[in-house]
Specification:
single chain, 5-stranded parallel beta sheet, two-stranded parallel ribbon, 23 helices
Length: about 425
C-alpha cells in the first residue's frame, strides 16, 4: 500500500517503495487499490472522462474536496491516488488523533515544501470530528493554496463541516458498493498470492462470498476483514485447503452487518424510514426498519419515544387507543429492557401500522398556533377571567360568564375566543366526531 509521502520535501516519492506490501497489515489495507485500474465502484466519479479520473491522471489543478460517503467506499484510496501526481506530497491526519497543534505543524511543513515546488495534499480522515476552532484553523492555508484539503467524512458535511470551509471545497459523494462489486474484490483477494490470501489456499463457495457481500452493507473493509478472519480461523485440511462454510462466515461477520453510528446520520435515516413506513400503514416495512434499529444497537427508549409521537401525530383521534398502546410499550420497554422489549415494541409497531391515520391534531394545533402568534397581544375576554379579588370583580372580571353545567345553552351562546377571532374553526366537527 502507499506509504506516507512526508519523509522528504526535496525528492519525489519512490513508486516502488510506496507499493511495498506490509505482510502484517490487515487484508483490507494490503488490497487497497494502487491504481484506477484496480479501483472498483464510483463510476460516476472515476469513469471515462469523469472529474476524479482526469485529476488522478494529472489533468488540471486538484481542488480542495470533501469526500462524503459510507465507510469502506474508497475515500482514503482516492485521496492517495490523487497524491501520486508529480511534485505532490501526501500528508495524512486523523481528526480523531490530531488537534490544532498537529494541524499547524502540517501546514508549516506544507509551506516549506511549497518553497521547493512541492504541493501538499492534506488529507484529514473523519474531518467531521474536528470542532469549529480546528476547522477554522484550516481556512487560511486552504484559501491561499498552501494546501489542498481532502477531507473524508461519513457524516453529512452540510451539518458537520463549517460553512466557511465547505464553501471553499467541492463536495464529492461516494456510494456504497453493490453486491457484485464487493464479490469481485473478494475474489481478487482470494486469488492474489502477494497481497491477498491465495497462499493460504482458501476454498470459499460463491454462495458464501455473496453472503459476505450482502451483509457488508456496501463496506469493502467489513467484507475483506470478515473474509480474512474466516480464512485464518480454519485449519487446512489434508489437501491443504481451508474450506470456509456458512457458519464460519456468519461468525466472522458478527453484528457488524447491523452496526451503525448511533449518533450519525444513518441512525436518523433508519428512524425516519420506520416512521414513514408506519405513516404509510406498511406493516412489513415498519417491522423491517424496527429490526434494523434494534439489531443495530439503537436505544430502545429512543424507538419507544418515536412510536409515542407517531401515535398522536399520525393516528390521534382516528384511534385514541394507539397512544395507549405506544405508551404501554414505552413503559414495558423501560421496565424490562432488551432483548425482551423487542416484543412490546413490535406489538406497538404493528398496531400503529394497522391503525387508521389522521393528522387532525397536528393540523388543528398548527392553525391555532398561527393565530396565537399573530394575535399574541389580544387580551383574554373579561367573562373568561377569574375574579379572585373584589377589585377584579369591580373591573368586570368574570362578568357574563355562564356555567355550562347549569346552563347548557351557554355552549352555543357564549364565545370563548377573543372578539376578533370569533367564528374561527381549527377542527372540522365531522373529523372530530
Amino acid at each position: 500500500m502507499p506509504r506516507e509521502q512526508t519523509q522528504s520535501l526535496f525528492d519525489e516519492p519512490d513508486d516502488d517503495d510506496t507499493d511495498a506490501v506490509d505482510p502484517n497489515a490487515p487484508l483490507a489495507d494490503r488490497m487497497r487499490p494502487r491504481s484506477l485500474d484496480e479501483f472498483v465502484g464510483q463510476e460516476h466519479l472515476i469513469g471515462p472522462g469523469k472529474m476524479l479520473r482526469r485529476l488522478v491522471e494529472g489533468s488540471g489543478r486538484i481542488p480542495s474536496m470533501i469526500l462524503w460517503g459510507p465507510p469502506g467506499t474508497g475515500k482514503t484510496t482516492l485521496a492517495r491516488l490523487l497524491a501520486r501526481r508529480d511534485r505532490t506530497r501526501f500528508a495524512p491526519l486523523s481528526a480523531v488523533l490530531s488537534g490544532v497543534k498537529e494541524l499547524r505543524e502540517a501546514i508549516a511543513t506544507a509551506r516549506d515544501a511549497r518553497r521547493h515546488f512541492l504541493h501538499t495534499l492534506l488529507f484529514i480522515d473523519e474531518i467531521h470530528r474536528f470542532n469549529k476552532g480546528q476547522q477554522d484553523a484550516l481556512l487560511p492555508a486552504v484559501e491561499d493554496g498552501t494546501v489542498t484539503l481532502l477531507g473524508a467524512t461519513t457524516e453529512n458535511p452540510s451539518f458537520e463541516v463549517n460553512a466557511a470551509l465547505l464553501s471553499r471545497c467541492k463536495t464529492v459523494i461516494l456510494h456504497p458498493l453493490d453486491e457484485s462489486q464487493i464479490v469481485s474484490l473478494l475474489r481478487r483477494a482470494l486469488d492474489d498470492p502477494d497481497r491477498g490470501l491465495a497462499s493460504l489456499h482458501p476454498d470459499v463457495p460463491g454462495a458464501e462470498l455473496g453472503r459476505l457481500a450482502r451483509f457488508s452493507g456496501g463496506d469493502v473493509r467489513v467484507a475483506l476483514s470478515a473474509l480474512e478472519a474466516a480464512v485464518l480461523s480454519i485449519a487446512p485440511g489434508k489437501d491443504g485447503k481451508r474450506l470456509v462454510d456458512e457458519s464460519t462466515i456468519v461468525e466472522a461477520l458478527g453484528r457488524s452487518r447491523f452496526a451503525y453510528d448511533k449518533g450519525g446520520e444513518d441512525h436518523y435515516n433508519l428512524a425516519s424510514a420506520l416512521i414513514k413506513s408506519l405513516r404509510n400503514s406498511d406493516a412489513n416495512a415498519a417491522l423491517y426498519w424496527l429490526a434494523r434499529l434494534i439489531e443495530g444497537g439503537a436505544d430502545p427508549i429512543f424507538i419507544a419515544r418515536r412510536l409515542c409521537i407517531l401515535a398522536s401525530e399520525d393516528v390521534g383521534l382516528a384511534d385514541p387507543n394507539a397512544m395507549v398502546q405506544a405508551h404501554a410499550a414505552a413503559e414495558i420497554t423501560r421496565l424490562i429492557g432488551l432483548p425482551e422489549a423487542l416484543y412490546p415494541l413490535s406489538q406497538a409497531t404493528l398496531y400503529l401500522a394497522r391503525a387508521p391515520k389522521s393528522n387532525l391534531i397536528k393540523r388543528a394545533y398548527q392553525a391555532a398556533a398561527k393565530d396565537a402568534a399573530e394575535t399574541a397581544n389580544l387580551p383574554v375576554p373579561l367573562h373568561l377571567r377569574n375574579a379572585v379579588t373584589p377589585l377584579m370583580a369591580s373591573a368586570g372580571y368574570g362578568k357574563g360568564y355562564r356555567y355550562v353545567h347549569d346552563d347548557p345553552a351557554a355552549r352555543e351562546a357564549m364565545t370563548c375566543l377573543p372578539e376578533s377571532l370569533v367564528g374561527r374553526s381549527y377542527v372540522d366537527p365531522e373529523e372530530l366526531g
